[in-house]
Specification:
mainly alpha, ABC transporter involved in vitamin B12 uptake, BtuC, 11 helices, 83% helix, 0% strand
Length: 263
């Protein structure tokens, strides 16, 4: 489990989990879980398209995920839930078409849908670090405006926050994070890492800074446990991430309710 070929998996997994926990805090705070589900499917379609034309999958994932995020963000005032659903459907359809045209073999399809962190190469680590740093800096800059806009929208506007521009910036940041998460846990389950641990963290504390930190910790622990379980069982990492994310949320939900009743 800790042999040399697993080193990349642990390093990249930790970076991705930290970013997913940080981004997911704002996803839950802003009620953007549906968008967090739709955007990774753009990354899936981009990876399939990149495979078809013979370029690095990461660039296809980034471009398609960002395109999906911009489309969703532009619809903020016009039935955004419908546009989000349409983006989800279109990206899944494109991904299926690209895979069919490229004749990708079955393990490659499984990796895109359910993740394959154990196959991460050393050459792919530098772009992961670069994109992660960009996302982390963007979240740091947007931290206060995002919290203000989610908790006191009128106050945020009075302080000059542009909600449309802020939404676009956040969705693009989320898209970049999704482009990193899809190869780890897959397009179909990547949003579970972005939503489960952050939602569980908000059950424990309502303080933004504490919830953000706890969200990142829970996300890392979830992914570490999933990597270990995947290594031992040969089941996809995404399966364990989905199950553990839901389990952590349910346990903390029941625990906080029981504590409230006892008080």
């Amino acid at each position: 489990m800790f042999s040399s070929f697993m080193t990349n998996a642990w390093i990249v997994g930790t970076v991705v989990a930290l970013l997913a926990g940080a981004t997911g805090f704002f996803v839950v705070l802003r009620g953007s879980s549906f968008a967090a589900h739709a955007v990774p499917n753009g990354a899936f379609a981009g990876a399939a398209g990149a495979t078809l034309v013979g370029i690095a999958p990461l660039w296809g994932m980034v471009s398609f995920a960002v395109a999906a995020a911009l489309g969703i963000g532009a619809s903020r005032r016009h039935r955004s839930d419908v546009v989000t659903a349409m983006a989800l459907v279109v990206m899944l359809a494109l991904g299926a078409a690209f895979l069919s045209l490229s004749a990708a073999y079955e393990p490659q399809v499984d990796a895109l849908l359910f993740g394959e962190i154990l196959g991460i190469s050393s050459t792919s680590m530098a772009p992961v670090f670069a994109v992660s740093i960009v996302c982390a800096l963007a979240l740091a800059v947007m931290y206060r405006p995002l919290v203000y806009d989610a908790t006191a929208a009128d106050l945020a506007r009075s302080r000059g926050v542009n909600p449309t521009l802020l939404e676009m910036g956040f969705l693009v940041t989320m898209a970049l994070g999704a482009a990193l998460t899809v190869p780890v846990v897959g397009a179909l389950l990547s949003f579970s890492l972005t939503v489960g641990p952050p939602a569980a963290a908000r059950l424990v504390t309502r303080r933004p800074a504490s919830a953000l930190g706890l969200s990142m910790v829970l996300s890392v622990l979830t992914l570490w446990t999933s990597i270990a379980a995947s290594y031992q069982t040969n089941l996809p990492v995404g399966f364990f991430v989905g199950v553990l994310s839901a389990l952590v949320y349910v346990v903390l939900r029941v625990g906080t309710r029981g504590r409230a009743r006892g008080a």
